[in-house]
Each structure stands twice: as structure tokens, then as C-alpha cells.
Design brief:
about 110 residues
């Protein structure tokens, strides 16, 4: 039996929620252990900035992953198209032709 999962799993959201929780918890712990309120406020602002940056990066990564999956799915659905210029046949390589054929220099 598989463990029950939430209807919509959001791993990035879970990370952001835990980070927000730590943004609230860390200053309390710092003040309890003797750090000034100013120091705790600076730590809170730093954690909030890092949390916001991580959230932006996680959302961007998810969006990129979704777009890449959609592009791969579209590539599988459409057959590869070869135009007449993409065929590799005799004389199709430009710039590699030797003029005059083979000659012997004796």
C-alpha cells in the first residue's frame, strides 16, 4: 500500500514554508540566548532575503522543467522533417569538392 499523498504536491512550497518558519524561529532563539534585538532583526532580514531568492529560483526551475517536458512531448508527437536540402547524397557537401579529378604528377 502506498502512503497517502496530498492532492497537489508542492515540494518548492514545502521548502519555502519551512524557510519562513525558520525566519520566525531563529530571531526568537537568538534573543533568548542573549543576542540584541537589532542583531536578531538583521538575521531575520537576511533569512527573509535568502528565502525570497530561493523561492524565486525554485519557481523558475519548476517553470523551466514544465516547459522542457512540454517541448519533449511535442518533439515526440511531430515526426522529424527532412527538407530536400538536408539529404546527404553525392555532391551535397559544399566546399569539399576537388576540381580536376585525380591527377598523377610523375
Amino acid at each position: 500500500m502506498q502512503p497517502s499523498r496530498r492532492p497537489q504536491e508542492d515540494p518548492a512550497g514545502d521548502v519555502v514554508r519551512w524557510a519562513a518558519f525558520s525566519c520566525l524561529l531563529v530571531p526568537v532563539v537568538l534573543v533568548v540566548y542573549g543576542t540584541s534585538f537589532g542583531g536578531a532583526a538583521v538575521a531575520t532580514l537576511g533569512l527573509a532575503a535568502v528565502t525570497a531568492a530561493c523561492r524565486v529560483l525554485l519557481r523558475h526551475s519548476e517553470q523551466t522543467e514544465r516547459n522542457a517536458g512540454r517541448v519533449l512531448a511535442e518533439d515526440r508527437l511531430t515526426p522529424a522533417h527532412r527538407g530536400r536540402h538536408s539529404r546527404a547524397g553525392a555532391g551535397s557537401q559544399r566546399g569539399c569538392q576537388v576540381s580536376g579529378g585525380m591527377s598523377s604528377h610523375d
